[in-house]
Amino acid sequence: MHLSLDPWIWIAAILMIFIYSFLYKDNPFYKFAEHLVVGVSVGYGIALFYQQQFLPIVYTPLTTDFKNNWHLIVPLVLSTFFLFRFIPKVSWMIRWPIAITLGYGAGIAIPLIIQTSLYEQIRFTMLPLFGTDAGMWLTVVNLLIILGVISCLTYFYFSIKHTGVIGTVSKIGIVFLMVGFGTSFGNTVMARVSLLIGRTSFLMTDWLGLPIIK
Amino acid sequence: MSIFEWLLKIDRKYIFLVIGVLVLASFFIPFKMVIKDTVPVKNVYDSIEKMDENSCVLISFDFDPSAEPELLPMSKAIIRQCLRNKVKVVAIALWPQGVGLAENSLTTVAEEIGAKRGKDWVNLGWKVGMFQVVLAIGEDITKTFSKDNAGTPTKNMEIFEKVKNYNDIDLVITLAAGNSPDTWVTFAGTKYKAKIAAGVTAVMAADYYPYLQTKQMIGLVNGLKGAAEYETLVGKPEKAVRGMTPQSAIHIAIILFILLGNIGYFLTKNKK
Amino acid sequence: MKRTGPLVVCFIFAIIMMVQAFVPHPFSEDFLQLSNNHLMVMSTFALAIGISTFVHLHLTKIRKNGEGWYFSIVALVGMVVTATVGIFGKTEAGTLYDKIFFYIQNPMQSAMFSLLAFFMASAAYRAFRARSFEATLLLLAAIIVMLGRVPIGDLMTGGATSKITEFLFSVPNMAAKRAIMLGVSLGVIATSLKIIFGIERSWLGGTD
Question: What pLDDT sits at residue C57?
Answer without folding.
Answer: 93
